[in-house]
Amino acid sequence: MVHMKLCSPIGSPLKSDFKAVARPMSLEGMRIGLLDNTKAPVDKMMAHLVQRLKERIPGVKPYYISKNVMLRPAESEVIQALCENADVVINALGD
């Protein structure tokens, strides 16, 4: 006899105290964090994005960092580095 376990894909929302902050009116002079999830071709996309940001936004300061493992959330030290070195963050996902 074969036993099967059925799992429902419907979950219940997690409660969170997370609140989004207001978007900045301008990125001029801001430190922009670029988080790479290490999937291809995010590295090429981010390099292009850094170039375009520098061309279009005066005084922008890109800060590029990658996760260590693509299939897991960003490590606490990566999040800490972004908190210390970026005013806003762009997270890129590749595939």
Task: Describe the fold and architecture.
By secondary structure, this protein is an alpha/beta fold. It has a domain at 31-92. The chain is built from two helices and three strands; from the N terminus they run βαβαβ. The chain has helices spanning 42-56, 76-85, and strands at residues 31-36, 61-66, 88-92. The protein has a three-stranded parallel β-sheet with strand order 2-1-3, with helices on both faces. It is elongated and about 70 Å long. The mean pLDDT is 89.
Question: How would you briefly describe this protein structure?
Answer:
26% of the residues lie in helices and 18% in strands.
Given the helix and strand composition, which structural class is it? Answer: alpha/beta
Q: Please compute the radius of gyration using only Cα atoms.
A: 18 Å
The helical percent reads 25-40%
Distance between the termini: 40 Å
Number of strands: 3
Name the shape in a single word.
elongated
Secondary structure layout plus pairing:
Elements: E1 31-36, H1 42-56, E2 61-66, H2 76-85, E3 88-92
Parallel strand pairs: 1-2, 1-3
Features:
single chain; 95 residues; alpha/beta; three-stranded parallel beta sheet; 26% helix
